[in-house]
Amino acid sequence: MRYPYVKATTKAISAPASAEPRASPWLLAAVRLVSRPYLRLALGYRRIDVDRAGLLVDAFRDFQEGRTRLILAFRHPYGDEAQLMAWLFSRGVMAEARHLGAPLPDRAHAVFIHGYEVPRWSGPAVRWLLPRMGALPVHHSKVDRPGLERINAAIMDGRWPLALAPEGQVSYASRDVPRLEDGTVRLGFGAAAALRKAGRPERVVVVPISVFRHCDDAVLPSLGRLVRRLEGALGVDGAGRTGAGLKARLDAAAERLVALAEGLYGLKPSETGPGLDARLAAVTLAAVEAAERILDLGSYRTGVIERVYRVRQAGWDRIYPDTDPGSLHPAGRALADRRAGEAWYAMRHMELADLAFYLSPDRLDPAAPLDSMVEYAQNLWDLANRLMGGVISGRVNVRPIRARIAIGPALDLSGRMAAYEADPRTAVRQAGTDLKDLFLLDAQGAHT
Asked: What are phi and psi of 374, to 5 degrees?
């Protein structure tokens, strides 16, 4: 079988050049043309349903007619939400507007925010595509004034709405909202304050968008292949595959996975508490600490994902140093290569922690719907992939699947300016809580 190892980086690399973000009209037209076939053929979406699509049409109309500045906040539980959203914001919303008998006054599009590292790990094609889609890069864990200035300018004066994932990265959990970052509402409140100061009448609104995958028995052959691949990679006894239930097989794989990870970090189950959740949490912390030791980052009291961001930043900075490695003398180049190699191995620990933080093997009910079983199987494979040194590109998706996109009611941040001016921190926290509640409402409804 083919194992998802990632080839180790052992040399420092010159940072790739990136074009200044500027949407290309001909590329946007091409994306509108190919987005739906791409979702069907490349990603396995045989159908896409949009709940409460009229709310999205109204939001785009208000934006295009100058009444609002619009932030589209979409959930990111699976990994391919950007592709789904690209279709939704370029074709889906326009089709729904025509269906309602009131076409939008302008072509629809949205400018996406992405982590600055995405073009580095995703390759030259994505590196070429993103800026020509108008996408805006930003750093997670260091001051990025140019990036924030571009984003603020897009919110205030851009031709298109801004689209971003409030979770900050893939969360691997559609039935829950493990964490939201406050950047979305902070950006929105900042724009609302600037608009008020400038005497402009537009209101800043945030539209929450949830994404779910649904499937039926047509997915069982693909799911079966994935489970067998997982069992084969872990050396789980295949005897009784035909008799054991899916949940039991996945639980056996989860037990083996956690045990292997504990062995890697010298952990003993008796010392971490009962249950896979507690054991996996200990693995997650040990993985972050291992990465921090390798990179000599010291100890931090922040949350796990904030530490993951810091490791990721430090790792990429070593692999792509500010000084061109080709300009260094031999000893300097050799040391830069060693630092890059150490960073690569540190980031293997970080990748494991990044995924393990979101997983909760103890929570899956034996009577859970097939959708949840599929998500669980994919996440367990991802955990095995990360344990073997892989990254998100090694994720395996079963197919065929149906996407359900749920549009939530808008949060009017301009209407909360009195609270924001009185106590910014509390206003940001409350708006974030309200946004999370809207996501949770759709998540609970999708999986009952």
From this structure: -65, -45
Cα–Cα dist 348/156, whole Å: 39
Contact between residue 139 and residue 129 where contact means Cβ atoms under 8 Å apart = no
Strands 162-164 and 68-74: parallel
Q: Give the angle 224-225-226 at the CA atoms, nearest 5°.
A: 90
Least confident of 257-261, 395-399, 419-423: 395-399
* Bridge-based pairing state of the strands 162-164 and 203-214: unpaired
CA proximity to 170, closest of 363, 393, 5, 322:
393
Fill in the amino acid letter for 79.
G
User: Which class in CATH covers the domain with range 25-215+400-446?
Assistant: alpha beta
Tell me which residue has tokens 């805006």: 136
Question: What's the distance, CA 304 to chain centroid?
Answer: 16
Residue labelled with tokens 């940001």: 428
The answer to whether 136 and 21 are in contact (CB under 8 A) is: yes
Could you report the per-residue pLDDT of 336-373, keeping only the tens digit for each?
999 999 999 999 999 999 999 999 887 777 778 899 99
CATH 3.40.1130-classified regions of the chain: 25-215+400-446
pLDDT of residue 411: 97
pLDDT at 269: 82
223 vs 382: CA distance, rounded Å: 14
